[in-house]
Fold this sequence. Notes:
- The chain has helices at residues 2-19, 21-28, 35-56, 68-89, 94-101, 104-114, 121-137, 147-173, 180-202, 211-239, 241-248, 251-262, 269-286.
- By secondary structure, the chain is mostly helical.
- It has one domain (2-286).
Amino acid sequence: xxxxxxxxxxxxxxxxxxxxxxxxxxxxxxxxxxxxxxxxxxxxxxxxxxxxxxxxxxxxxxxxxxxxxxxxxxxxxxxxxxxxxxxxxxxxxxxxxxxxxxxxxxxxxxxxxxxxxxxxxxxxxxxxxxxxxxxxxxxxxxxxxxxxxxxxxxxxxxxxxxxxxxxxxxxxxxxxxxxxxxxxxxxxxxxxxxxxxxxxxxxxxxxxxxxxxxxxxxxxxxxxxxxxxxxxxxxxxxxxxxxxxxxxxxxxxxxxxxxxxxxxxxxxxxxxxxxxxxxxxxxxxxxxxxxxxxxxxxxxxx
Length: 302
């Protein structure tokens, strides 16, 4: 019981870190840093900290060789996800963005079906519920679904798709492995290397203009990147992935609450209904089946 209780605490703490991510980003944006700059600094801070924590915890080596090249390659998807988030939050409210992003469990089920896995009736129902929730979640914004609003919605779906592919690949490549912390560190390293390549192509990165921006970037890397990863890994070890997935569905609710309280965003009643549909679809995908489809625990995409 104690292990399960601590697992819940770990998962909820990780969720709290991810919930704060839009707050850091929305407060960094007025500094003039572009999405590519924000993503570069995020992984520049997060990557060494993750490896230092592994050393400090004396994390044992993996029981069998990790697919390091593949994990570094997955870093590209993490980088795409991060950049998409920062571009998307420039265009639509955080509450809307996170709800659209949480269509990714449905995407996982659909992609697995396309790859030949059986998709039970329950998963098809969850997909229909997800699409209904998306239709209700995207509001008019007074200008219709066009311009920046349309771009923001499409970016949210790109973000969700990149995270869906990430989970499908890491679930396949990490079967039989137990060293998920090291795997996460290698993936973050891959994201950092991806941003270094982008930095080279761009010819540099913009330096934060003031102390406030430096602090916000550091908080984003530590509180909303490194900390949630380790908390989720510890939580999954104690609860199992299915229970952790169910608990993590409170993340969109938390993000909507924080967006309303700290960012002053107004959430329309129809969006709340759409959000409820999306959360129901996630829970449908997590209900045990005789032959459950492999759907990962939601973990912020960010």
